[in-house]
Amino acid sequence: MARYAVELVFGEDQEARLAVRPAHREYLATLVEQGKLLVSGPYADQSGAILVYEVADEAELKSVLAADPYTPAGVVAETRVHEWLPLMGTWLTD
After folding, report:
1. How confident is the model over 52-59, as a mean pLDDT?
2. How confident is the model at residue 93 (pLDDT cuts 50, 70, 90)?
3. Alpha helices for the chain (secondary structure H)
4. For the whole model, what pTM was predicted?
5. Rounded distance between C-alpha atoms, residue 10 and residue 42, angstroms
6. Contact status, residue 83 vs residue 58, Cβ threshold 8 Å
């Protein structure tokens, strides 16, 4: 399994993003249940969000991101993806 830190930069149309946000959060909840999403949350200024995924590989991550309701809605201006190798932290289990 690989971990990825994903930064979403929200687009200018906040109204459109807020309209699709309930579906986005419902989708993320299913990923949490599946063990694919470790943590997520928006920036306090609502300009974007950070999400940390644990998936098999980059191909699976791309599939997960493509299925997020935010993607077809076009409310994310930029997505930055980095494979992440966490070393320390109180919530790490391995």
Report:
1. 97
2. low
3. 14-33, 58-67, 70-73
4. 0.92
5. 10
6. yes
